[in-house]
Amino acid sequence: MSNSKKILIVDDEKMNIMALVHFLRSQYEIIIAVDGISALEAAEKHAPDIILLDVIMPDMSGFDVLVKLKDSSVTMNIPVIFITGLNDVESEEKGLVLGAVDYIAKPFHKSIVKARIQTHLKMSDYIRTIEKFGLMDVLTGLSNRRSFDTRMSTEWGRAFREKKPLGLIILDIDNFKIYNDTYGHPQGDTLLQAIAAVLNETVNRSSDFVARWGGEEFIVLLPDTDRNGILNIAEQIRVNIKNRIVPCTDETNTSATVSLGAKSIIPDDDNSIARFIADADALLYTAKKNGKDQVCIDNA
Predict the structure, then answer these.
(1) pLDDT tens-digit profile of 224-244?
(2) For this structure, is 155 an active site residue?
(3) Against a cut of 0.90, is the pTM above it?
């Protein structure tokens, strides 16, 4: 069951839940939520492969739940199928416009529900495969710059609306050219992979985002993280990279240091994404100029 796809069923009617669970549990891992709030929490916690969502619920409608799912970088790509008693054209159109992948009216036929689920799971896997190779840095396995740009746009918009801080760290390997000249470019690639591994180990909230910015530069996006928080994480990254032993093919060991620029702001009309990134990059340059192997953070 651990390798099964996960389905989140959201419905406030026990009989509807029981009916769906009865014919789906043999193939899928089932997660249940009985209202909108618990549905959002379950989606964030369990990252289901697909969500079956009712429209009419007591605390918030399925439409409102879908909007919040699409507004979160953690849940925005989870396919949602509405299964609801609302069978009018206007409701179906609204659900699809808001981003649902399908709309099934009650009473449902189990064969139709199963077929639709299988279709959308296959489509989701196909899309993920395409995105993985189009948005991934092949050497390190991290997201690439194109992927970062998309994620930054999403997180910037959300932080702007919710008036929450957004943190950014740009880091660069110190003396990387000398490292390559000394140990060779294949070993330089090994170092890049080791640093990517450290970043994945150190930055581990589901909402955080790590990417290879280009060359020997990496970038880390930290939603809902203030100045103190981003300084702590940047320092953890610096120390963990400095302490990472990177083996060579001749059985000797190497290591490296990084310089980091860190900045946290609450987006508003006086700021922009381009300026935010440029400010963090300038802080990185200052860290380099001041001796490397250090974090430079803005004084705001």
Answers:
(1) 999 999 999 999 999 999 999
(2) no
(3) no
pLDDT in tens, 144-200: 998 999 999 999 999 999 999 999 999 999 999 999 999 988 899 999 999 999 999
Q: Buried (b) or exposed (e) across 43-69, using 16+ Cβ within 10 A?
A: beeeebbbbbbbbebeeebbbebbebb
Is the N-terminal amide bond of 107 cis, ω within 30° of 0? yes
CA–CA separation, 206 and 141 (whole Å):
17
pLDDT digits (tens, 9 = 90+) for 188-209: 999 999 999 999 999 988 899 9
Inter-residue contact 85 to 62 (CB < 8 Å): no
Element (H, E) at 150: helix 145-162
- Distance, in Å, from the CA atom of 13 to the CA atom of 83, rounded to the nearest integer, reads 12
State the catalytic residue, choosing from 41, 92, 155, 216. 216
Tokens of 85: 């008693």
At 120, which amino acid appears? H
Please give the structure tokens belonging to residue 251. Answer: 């059985």
The half-sphere exposure of 90 on its side-chain side, counting CA atoms within 13 A, is 0
